[in-house]
Specification:
The chain is of the alpha/beta class. It has one domain. It is built from 5 helices and 7 strands, in the order ααβββαβαβββα. Pfam families: DUF3105 (PF11303).
Length: 219
């Protein structure tokens, strides 16, 4: 019991620390936005040229930076992607080898993932960007029990760097996804839900640890 209480306190402390860090990033981003607005007019012409060139570069690399590899399932039931997960921002639609995807090229904009629960399916390219920032993505099909969906939504809302949405294209009723990692769970009370969140929310797999989970897209 003592160990469990200590673990809960540590997790709560971690979540509070992440909330404070997120709030600090939001304040910093607001200041940067104000500063940028002062010079935006002067930079419109040059910025337009750079943007066109950048988009051209994105389109040209979309066909080159392919995700390659396959899943390897560990003893704990977590599937880990063994191979290349490219991270290029692209404008062309990306066809991912898994559903939901666990990484790869993606859109410039991320989905807000500060405990955000979405009721409609997401654009995978935006959600993958959230994974790159260290988010865990909870997805479910119409075969998932309503009680499980509601309980999982409550867990997500209480956990920074998570997001949740329906995905009827996936193979199992409830799945958890992080950058390069994925697993199926039986329901909201499956102990593997807490284990996955504990390990992969801003975990070691995160390509851009500390990047914001706010200021992106929302439904």
């Amino acid at each position: 019991m003592g160990s469990a209480k200590t673990s809960n306190r540590d997790r709560k402390a971690r979540i509070e620390e992440m909330r404070r860090a997120e709030a600090s990033r939001e304040r910093r981003n607001r200041l940067l936005t104000i500063a940028a607005s002062v010079v935006v007019v002067a930079g419109l012409v040059v910025g337009g040229v750079v943007l066109v060139q950048s988009q051209s570069d994105d389109d040209s690399t979309a066909a080159d930076a392919k995700t390659t590899g396959s899943f390897v399932t560990g003893a704990d039931g977590v599937k880990t992607w063994k191979g290349k997960l490219s991270q290029t921002h692209v404008t062309k639609t990306v066809k991912y080898p898994t559903e939901p995807p666990v990484g790869g090229d993606h859109d410039r904009a991320w989905m807000n993932c500060n405990g955000d629960v979405y009721t409609k399916a997401l654009n995978n390219m935006n959600a993958v960007h959230s994974l790159e920032h260290g988010a865990v993505w909870v997805t479910y099909t119409d075969k998932a029990a309503k009680a499980d969906v509601e309980a999982l939504a409550a867990k997500v809302k209480a956990t920074p760097y998570t997001l949740m949405s329906p995905d009827d294209k996936q193979a199992d009723p409830i799945m958890l996804t992080a950058w390069g990692h994925q697993r199926t769970v039986t329901g909201a009370d499956d102990p593997n839900v807490a284990k996955f969140l504990e390990k992969f929310v801003q975990g070691e797999q995160t390509p851009e640890k500390g990047a914001a989970c706010t200021g992106g897209l929302s439904q």
